[in-house]
Design goal:
The protein is elongated. A two-stranded antiparallel sheet has the order 1-2. The longest helix has 42 residues. A hairpin with a 6-residue loop joins strand 1 and strand 2. The chain has one domain. Helix 2 packs antiparallel against helix 3 and helix 3 packs antiparallel against helix 4. It contains four helices and two strands; from the N terminus they run ααααββ. Helices cover 67% and strands 5% of the residues. By secondary structure, it is mostly helical. The structure holds zinc ion. The site of zinc ion has 9 residues, from loops.
Length: 122
């Protein structure tokens, strides 16, 4: 939804750059347009990277909460979704502290101090 504005901005920059460099110089206009295409894909890549990072953090919070035996892992995930880095810090401070080990029974992570595995109950 932000792409039309961005490409308009890019065209405006490309146009003014081309005009400034040389009048009706096709080579420099093409070079500016190519440079703008790279700048546009960089912003798109940056945006996608942030989205991917957010999803990765949400998945990690949900898995970490489950491994620590929290029933409200989905609530923590929603908190981090809506409050971002603040919610993540709150979760890191509020979650049960302790080492996570791999459960020998089911292979999922569980708290070292937990009596029962939250995944398989062993
Ligand atoms: Zn288990």
């Amino acid at each position: 939804m932000r792409k039309p504005a961005l490409s308009f901005l890019c065209s405006a920059i490309a146009l003014s750059t081309a005009t400034a460099l040389a009048q009706n110089d096709d080579a420099s206009a093409a070079a500016s347009a190519a440079g703008c295409g790279i700048c546009g894909s960089f912003f798109l890549f940056f945006f996608l990277a942030i989205v991917a990072l957010n999803i990765a953090i949400l998945v990690w919070v949900a898995r970490d909460a489950k491994a620590r035996g929290l029933d409200n892992g989905v609530l923590w995930m929603l908190l981090v979704l809506f409050t971002g880095i603040v919610g993540l810090i709150v979760y890191l401070l509020a979650r049960p502290q302790g080492n996570l080990i791999v459960c020998p029974n089911c292979g999922n992570k569980r708290m070292q101090a937990a009596v029962k595995c939250p995944s398989c109950g062993a």
